[in-house]
């Protein structure tokens, strides 16, 4: 009987912990999902596909402020449109390289790292959406621990009231699952 009560207490405590953790993750996604390394200098910037137009706009802004002299657009279906947006944002076409084969964040990292190695770079800025920045940064670090990566995300629609009108509510919610999924599928630690 004592053993059964002990197990019930452990189960109830575990359930309360999981519920509290889920509530914290839901209430504070910006603090949990966002990684921003702050201003710095790098050899190249990598703008990941996805988002609307906020990622290439952020990369153009960082390019104009001198954070990196070269930009790589990564992602099947987005690399050419992101290239056009970068040029419209003032990035010379000669300062842009393309990786147009990757279909997910793991492939973004793996395929782009091949290009980074050919270019001989050591420091790289990753540009993506705020809610995607943790997983993206850790993917690149996982596949190339010898390189130094920084995260400089776009802060498009960070306020909860903007999520639904801007269509990112689903992305924010599923990003937690993707972080766990990448741990089990690719060995990428989300912490």
Describe the structure.
Strands 3-2-1-4-5 form a five-stranded parallel β-sheet, with helices on both faces. With about 190 residues, the protein is an alpha/beta fold. It starts with a helix and ends in a 5-residue tail after the last helix. About 55% of the residues lie in helices and about 10% in strands. About 35% of the residues are buried. β4, α6 and β5 form a beta-alpha-beta unit. α3 packs across α4 and α5 (about 105-120) crosses α6. It has helices at about 1-25, 30-35, 55-65, 80-90, 105-120, 135-145, 160-165, 170-185; strands at about 45-50, 70-75, 95-100, 125, 150. The chain folds into two domains: about 1-35; about 35-155 and about 160-185, Rossmann fold, CATH 3.40.50. The radius of gyration is 19 Å and the shape is elongated. It contains eight helices and five strands, in the order ααβαβαβαβαβαα.
